[in-house]
Amino acid sequence: MSDFTYVENVAHANICAEQALSSNAASVAGKPFFVTNDEPMETWEFMNCMMEAMGCQRPRINLPAKMLLFAALFSKMIHHRLGFQMLSTPLLHPDTIYFLSCTRTFNTSRARRLLGYHPIVSLEDGIMRTLGSFSELADNLGLSRKQGSCGSSKADKLLGSGTAADILLWRDEKRTFSFVTVLFLLFYWFLLSDRTFVSSAAKFLLVLSLALFIHGVLPSEVFGFTVEKVTSDHFEVSHSALRNSLMCVASAWNGSFHKLRLLAEGEDWSLLLKVFAFLYSIKLMLNFQFRFLMGLVLASLFIVFIVYEQCEEEIDSLVANASVKVKWLTDRVVRNLPAFLKAYIA
């Protein structure tokens, strides 16, 4: 819980103090007084109220403070180990997490009794007045994330601003939860069960066929609930979708051969390093079990994009700082190379 104070209440408290000093200085002179709105509330709830008033969405993911504190300590350690302290401050700082999660409430009874103070502006009115004075705040800071109000986020554009974006960004929580449930069941059916993949696929097709048959037999209304029939359009692939898929495959194939041709010319060192890094990452992934990798990928799909959308500016800033650091290290390594290697790389 935390106490907040609107600035007009602070000014009112100063006026009350001046009047009390004029009328009864002996009882108030030299004494400390706490002045707040006397409306303690959770810090996160206050932030949510501010965000909603600015037209932003409430955060959909709530993490425990202890988990964030551990992440902040880890972030601070990595920040110092990599030498980023000269470039920027850590994305998360333990002091910030502690300050936001601890209880900070104050007793204003002395100010009420001796100064005659009482809040003249409520916390809700104070929030609205603050945002009314800075109506352009959301636009200037780029905090608005509502789709259609200030444009799509980078995560939304990356996912194509379509159905996939709505699902992975949790726009429709019920729909996303349905997809998560189905994917988890498929993951368990094919990878976590003791059956072989062929056996699992055969049983899955059998269950699916039986479910479709039962669904087709059901009447249009059962116990007052409407049963939507599955039309043949759900099982058809349009010519445009098929053509686009084939074009994507052909484009990927041609792009791969183009990169191989560039490698064969032996001039593009950056491409060689990228290919080496890609193949080495594939080698590392093959050291893990396939079921572990698939589980990690499925979990990441529904976490990474929503986290990036919520912390877009912070992540972009961190990536930019990391890029500066990598470039600095690269230049330093190149400067220490022999002259003939520098000429060959150049």
Automatic annotation (TrEMBL):
It is a multi-pass membrane protein. Keywords: Endoplasmic reticulum, Membrane, Oxidoreductase, Transmembrane, Transmembrane helix. Pfam families: 3Beta_HSD, Reticulon. PROSITE patterns: RETICULON. It is found in: Endoplasmic reticulum membrane. Residues 164-346 form the Reticulon domain. One of its GO terms (molecular function) is oxidoreductase activity, acting on the CH-OH group of donors, NAD or NADP as acceptor. One of its GO terms (cellular component) is endoplasmic reticulum membrane. The keyword Oxidoreductase applies. The keyword Nuclease does not apply. The chain crosses the membrane at residues 176-192, 204-225, 290-308. One of its GO terms (biological process) is steroid biosynthetic process. Belongs to the 3-beta-HSD family. This is Reticulon-like protein. The lineage of its organism: Eukaryota, Viridiplantae, Streptophyta, Embryophyta, Tracheophyta.
